[in-house]
Fold this protein.
Amino acid sequence: MSAVRIDATKTVASLRNMNGGIVQAAALILKSAIEDTVSRAKATTAWKDRSGETRKSIVGSRTGFGTGIVTAGGASRFLENGTRAHIIEAKRAKALKFSVNGQMLFRRRVQHPGTKGAYFLTQARNAAQQDIAYAAEIFLGRVVR
């Protein structure tokens, strides 16, 4: 009877090293994507700042392996999702003051038509996810070669 011994210890060690590199690259890509999403969201021109509070409040963090979150405070929920038509009533003052066609008007209540969502966080996330896919494709291509 003849036999040959098959030794794959070097291959297994190489695969373990490659796996560690892939996990490390995935963490770096996620960190980059979170930072990119925050940067894009802060740089949006989808709305005009009044106080700057919403832009200042945009932050990102890692929430687990392969996941992160970007949050925004201030008026972000109205800017992101828009608003339905609603009534605005004067509460602290006797009347609301606003200008229409250069004429100053005073009303106790007005019907606001609502606003369209700017989806600035969604757009920033989508662009960052495209970057993630591209970076992962390049990295994995290099690792496999």
In short: The radius of gyration is 26 Å. Helices lie at 9-42, 53-57, 76-81, 120-144. The first helix runs from residue 9 to 42. Residues 16 and 22 are 10 Å apart (CA to CA).
